[in-house]
Please model this.
Amino acid sequence: MTSPGDFGGRETWPLWEVFVRSSRGLSHLHAGSLHAPDETMALRNARDLYTRRAEGVSIWVVPASAITASDPDARGAFFESPQGKEFRHATYYTESDAVPHL
Amino acid sequence: MSHTANRTISTAITAERIAEAGAVAPEAVANYALALGDDALVLAQRLGEWIAHAPELEEDVALGNIALDQLGHARNFLTYAGSAWGKTEDDLAYCRGESEFRNRQLFEQPNGDFAVTIARQFIASVYFDSLYRKLATSADPTLAAIAAKAAKEVDYHLDHSVQWLLRLGLGTEVSRERMQRGLDTVWPFVGELFSADPHAEGLEGIAVDPRTLQEHFDSVAPRLIANAGLTMPNTPAARGGGREGHHSESMGLLLAEMQVLARAHPGAQW
Model:
């Protein structure tokens, strides 16, 4: 299986996935992708492309080829199992009057 | 990602804030600010020529960002300079002829290939880095504020050009050869950067004497060039004279392109 960052040996800059953490102290979120010759330049390109409007205080770059993705064609078997298992959402419990702020 | 999520009230100095504050530059300070503004403006115009022509889309954005930073510095300096003569930044940028521009000749040099542009940006960034850090302590508060803001941005410009200097110098045989040629091409204009600036004279404590920046350049540039596996050029110095309005042949074309719209449609807004 070829991954998104695999150019089959052609001389093209590899693809990198960019994750940016905003200053609100949340997790790093996927912001997009870019091309760069190596990880150092990928970080700089990410800074130019994804933090132009002060969106972040921290950036991760990951080679796209290092990401193993679920198979979109196997979506059914992979993601349908939770269907009908509403008990996994804790929505049907009765709230206790003695416990405030739930 | 929300554009407003982290928007803070920016207190960074801008051309608009300088105009609003209404500080009027003394004549001598205005002449000095105009010279520094021309350096940044002409370099911004050159870098802008890369838009849609850079080797990769990502590099288009990187060079475009640096160009916009330089344009910001130019707008600040020109706005402040114009306060002495009742002129706007646009009056100064668009309504002066070639011999009235005071930029050092390095900044008007054609882009050449990517390596020439990186060589020019590397030299410019080492120079600006030391200039603005020193100017940030100027006795003139507006000059000091403009320089303090610019110094932070130039820090990144220097990093960008050094990263490319290393990669091209230590890359393939072709990239090394072209990076060396790039340095050799722009090196004749290094000497002028560190020669006396007639507009800085008589402004002790306010302006920076560029001759005092040579030592920093000599302690930084040769080391980085050697780290990139390249050799120090020994091309002869150009005649200089940018501060007196003498420019090289490509300057006229640069100005024509930069000024044509504003001159064909005076007062146009876009």
